[in-house]
Amino acid sequence: MSHRFGRFELDTEKRLLALDGAPQTLQPLVFDFLAYLVARADRVVGKDELFDALWPDVIVTESSLQRVASLARRALAAGDMADAIRSHSKHGYRFEAPAAAPASGQTLAEARAASRDKHWDVAARLFAAANAQSPLEPADLELWAAACQCMGRPAEAVPALLRAIAAYQQSGEATLAGRAAVTIARIEFDRGAHALAEGWIERAASLAATSEDEALRAYLGWIRAVFASIAGNATEALALASAASDQAERSGSAAMRALTLAFKGFYLLSLGEIEEGRRLQNHAAAITLSSPVDPVTGGLVYCNILWSCRTHADWDRASQWSDGFEAWCAASFAQSSGSCDLHRAELLGARGNLTDALRKLDEALPKLMQDRAIAMGEAHRIRGDVFAMLGDRDRAASDYASAYALGWDAEPGNAVLLFERGNAEGALAALDRTLAGKAWFHLQRRGLMLAHAARIAALSGRRERAQAYLAQLTDGGDRWAQPALLALAAEARAALTTSRETSANFLVQARQLWGDAGLDYDAARVRLALATTYRQLGEPADAEAELAQAEFTARRIQSPRLTAACAALRAAPKAKELLRA
């Protein structure tokens, strides 16, 4: 059977891939992988299915599949089609070839069909072709813009939306024009063009003034809340989001209900209303996963909830919702944005493989640079944290400096690095500056900063400052009861006590809490401290158990830094004597 796509022809009977008629050299397994995907281009092909098809009765690692996919993309790159093989995180791969331009009378119909079937790349190409033949109607312009956004290229949606607004205004459809204006404001805001975004918010407001549509008012209220939060007005942001949520409820729009509930919960979390904030965000996530919410709005909900979980050190909730949303994204066939890749990268760094986290960051950064996203600073902060866990402190320091240069806050990673390099006072000063901040970012991360400050102060012998930080953390009550924050506090108390037995007890508590949070790197780091303490207490068996588990974790998450620390502890003077006693 022969398949044609772009400049390629794939002949499965002859086992031949040709580019412009010229045979291409492919490894047999790479050909089988490509042929399998092409034959099933209507769906995402799961990883387990690919393992069974390509390696029957053989156990291989996921890296083998990634290698085959990489070689297949390299072969298609010769014909500018490397992007035809799309990865769907945790699920598998899908082949999406660009459509050949059909006859002029069929182009628009096929573009609409591709959009309906969520073949976003195909839809965008066909809408562009149809637009070249004759001007599109505003509804089709919006579909074209949506396809661009679902491909992870929102900047390409703006020209179509501008034309849609003009057409809607000409026909007197203020509600539809206002909705498109808010979407442009959101895209410009995400790109860091705040002046343009503010202008479009005002344009949307003037259009909404002549409309009775509650969904439009909810959408406009939501973007205004986002602007208020960035300006540091968390209370105003909550009021705007609350009003928008009420309007969304009256509108009956599932998308607006999910969006406004998620962000209302976000602002509640920032102001310390933890239980209610989580409840609203969980409700928003459930609406998104169970209702006909469009991929763009669903992505906004997903990113907001993950952002909230990350900044609040709520890693368990982040992991739970991440799995559900990634399955939803795969079903929507939407390409993840740079910001979404960023959230996944930090989650991988915290609870997975550090090499995979760097790979995901490498996927995110080009998207963020293309759209001039405000998340560029956050990307450098996260990558700095990953490099620090790998043991590359120079590159970590460079990324933290880049985050600050982009107007972002690189704490607490920058402070931890300063402390590890012998500058405890500089580390605490950096954390104190962040603690003095009033923006939503500072408010939501306050507990994390206090916990790190307490640990650094305690480890550097600044007892009174450590106790003061711990007191503030304790006064926060349930607001800062996440396992990661409690683990840092336990480490601080271990350093403050003069009793080795008591110190060991606090370290056991910290190790268990890091385990509860699912943060394997930190759990292993504490295991090494605990192994050292057990040696000092003359308990070699317990020391060996902690060291062995740390070594296992270091190998699994691929951290050279942890591996070196484990080796140094095992080779320390008298180590063999103590461990064999």
Strand and helix map with partners:
Elements: E1 2-5, E2 8-11, E3 16-19, E4 22-24, H1 28-39, E5 45-46, H2 47-54, H3 62-77, E6 85-88, E7 92-95, H4 104-116, H5 120-133, H6 138-150, H7 158-170, H8 174-190, H9 194-208, H10 214-230, H11 234-251, H12 254-270, H13 274-290, H14 295-311, H15 315-332, H16 338-351, H17 354-370, H18 376-390, H19 393-405, H20 413-420, H21 424-435, H22 440-444, H23 446-459, H24 463-475, H25 483-496, H26 500-517, H27 520-536, H28 540-557, H29 560-570, H30 575-580
Antiparallel strand pairs: 1-2, 2-3, 3-4, 5-7, 6-7
Helix pairs in contact: 1-3, 4-5, 5-6, 6-7, 7-8, 8-9, 8-10, 9-10, 10-11, 10-12, 11-12, 12-13, 12-14, 13-14, 14-15, 14-16, 15-16, 16-17, 16-18, 17-18, 18-19, 20-21, 21-23, 23-24, 23-25, 25-26, 26-27, 27-28, 27-29, 28-29
What does this structure look like?
The protein has about 575 residues and is mainly alpha-helical. Helix 16 (about 340-350) runs antiparallel to helix 17 and helix 23 packs parallel to helix 25 (about 485-495). The strands form 2 sheets. The chain has a 4-stranded antiparallel beta sheet, with helices on one face. The protein has a 3-stranded antiparallel beta sheet with strand order 5-7-6. Helix content is about 70%, strand content about 5%. The protein has 30 helices and 7 strands. It is globular. Among the domains are: about 1-95, Arc Repressor Mutant, subunit A (Orthogonal Bundle); about 100-210, Serine Threonine Protein Phosphatase 5, Tetratricopeptide repeat (Alpha Horseshoe); about 410-480; about 495-580.
